[in-house]
Amino acid sequence: MGALHEIAGGANGAIDCTAPAAFAAGIAARTGGKVLWCHIQPDLFEPALARSGLRENQVVFCRVADESELLDSFLEALSHGGPTAVVAELSSLKPVDSQRLQFAAEKTSTMAIALRRWRRNVDARDFGNQTSAFTRWRVTELNSEPLPVRGVGRAKWQLELMHARSGRPADFEVEACNGQGLISIPSQLADGSTEAGDGFIRAVS
Amino acid sequence: MGSSAPSREVPLVLKGSDGRRRVVSGADDLARQMGVYIGMPVAKAEALFTDLVILDGDRTADADALEKLAVWGLRHYSPLVAADPPDGLVLDIQGAAHLFGGEAGLIEDARRRLADFNISCVAALADTWGAAHALARFGRQPMQIVERDKTGDALRRLPVEALRLPPDMLPDLRLLGLDTIGELAGKPRPLLTKTFGPKLFRRIDQAFGRLNEPIEPVEAPELIRIERIFAEPIGAPETIEKYTRRLTDRMCLRLEEAGLGSRRLDLHFTRTDNRIETIFVSTAKPVRDARRLAKLLVDKIETVDPGWGVEKMVMTAAFTEPLVMKQTLASFETPARPDVEDLWDVLANRHGSDCLYRAISVATDIPERAVRRVSPTSEEVGSERNAIYRRPQRLYRKPEEIMALAVMPDHPPKAFTWRGQRYAVACADGPERVHGEWWIADREKGKVRDYFILEVDGGERFWAFRTGDGQHADTGGLKWYLHGKFE
């Protein structure tokens, strides 16, 4: 709970940061309390987060002008401890800053989620540099399971756990967060149920 | 005057005296249209127009009412408000405008509220008191905002009357052929100063911003006010912080006696050079917690320039509301988390109150209009519509045109090109038809968008739409746009 987690998108997701946002919304929603969502770019469609479990009465958004203000609000919210989870869309995360965020999150046992989002694909190489984050995730969209009829099924992701403190990296193929914020493991991979997804998230956070 | 007031259809004139004779001191719009002007002898007005209603003007009552209006401005808009007699208010809205969505928003709000009191007003915003005074009275526009550093240009065209000079000086200036401020300001100073005294160019310098003119805020006896005078001027930020905390403690005691909580707290620093620096904090709900208020104020101290030192600090609770204490039940097993409202106040005072919002979903199918932003403390509930239907997490502010080929009328494209990259569509969902809301915008009448969810090879999911229904040409131009991206 009280730790900093980094999430980024793979391929084009590094720029638009859509799947990571949905993933973060699902996790943040399940912390139970108020969630603060800090962002800079204006393209977030807030009602859609409810499909990942984050309802409109649970979340307050904070849109600021630049990266330094964003970092400041992120840190202030974490050290305050009122919200149970704080999500911030950041492009750069210096080791020193990540350390501060991690300490603040630990102290107030607030979940801190840094959504890494870059302006250009090239900058995304920054992801993977040493930070104090507890875990580092990469979410890449996969083709959904074919439906028996025409249409698009539940979104599917490849979830890479790139780094976990005192843990091993791992790969998962999962279905996106549903209205309760639960991901699920498709049945051909595991004997999947929503509870399986539940336990899995709890294991990492 | 209440029910004894004369009706609006009759021209109304107020009379006063200028020492020797009775003159008109005020006239309403109707009377002015007929040709009555201020300063006209009452006898002449009576002789020319027969149906005038003439009442005694009461200058002290006017001044009192203006003072009252200044207090109203102080509570609502800005910590630095003063009466600008005989007929104006002056507000320093530095750092206060963002609470109303910008400078234009603040002026609009003030005009609307004054209209509710049956007061019509003309407003102007400029860099200096003198310039705003001049533009409001001689600018010929009901509302005017002069951009920063453009004050000089706006002033030059105005007549010399706009400069707040003594009335007896004006005919002499006219005699010299000086009609506008621009002409006057361009003249050599020594000669004119010798003739008219130093006041002339002092007013010009004040209007152009070369000379500082502090606004002495109006005093409102009903507001709780605490001051501290320093024998030695203070300047170090730590010292200012220390005294800010002490003043806040005393303020909270006073608020407690009155059973009130503060919504806006002003802190004025009077510097040794007689300038007044002001900071203020506003909160979403009434607060009486000294630590919380002090933290908000201390956050802002860095914006105060103490100059050669601060010799007086005045703290005013500009806007207060009754504070009702609620009893909360502490849960035995989980420790309570701090109150989030406290955090909202900190962030709002730091980055502007419009940065924090709750997103309320509106019952409409047009995604651009689907979100309404409300304050974080509001309890409003939105419609479920956009939360249930499959909507993208990212919505491009401006739909981006794509090249796509599709079978008409209701098949999704097989492939499309976006930002120079070609995407093959693996599967798709749609169309979802959205009609233009003709009751909001006339040009949307009969227009149609067909939305599709497109999943491309590789897994990315997009939200695209085609304008027009594919059968009737008047429903749209059959162009394809990308409007969002799904998880």
UniProtKB/TrEMBL annotation, chain B:
Family listed: Belongs to the DNA polymerase type-Y family.
Gene Ontology BP term (one): DNA repair
Protein name: DNA-directed DNA polymerase
Enzyme's top EC category: transferase
Keyword presence, Cell inner membrane: no
UniProt xrefs under SUPFAM superfamilies: DNA/RNA polymerases (SSF56672)
EC number from the UniProt entry: 2.7.7.7
Subunit structure and binding partners: Monomer.
Reactions accelerated catalytically: DNA(n) + a 2'-deoxyribonucleoside 5'-triphosphate = DNA(n+1) + diphosphate
Domain UmuC: 9-133
Keyword match DNA damage: yes
GO molecular function: damaged DNA binding
Function of the protein: Poorly processive, error-prone DNA polymerase involved in untargeted mutagenesis. Copies undamaged DNA at stalled replication forks, which arise in vivo from mismatched or misaligned primer ends. These misaligned primers can be extended by PolIV. Exhibits no 3'-5' exonuclease (proofreading) activity. May be involved in translesional synthesis, in conjunction with the beta clamp from PolIII.
Pfam family, one: IMS_C
Keyword terms of this UniProt record: DNA damage
Matches recorded under Gene3D superfamilies: 3.30.70.270, 3.40.1170.60
Domain DNA polymerase Y-family little finger residue range list: 226-305
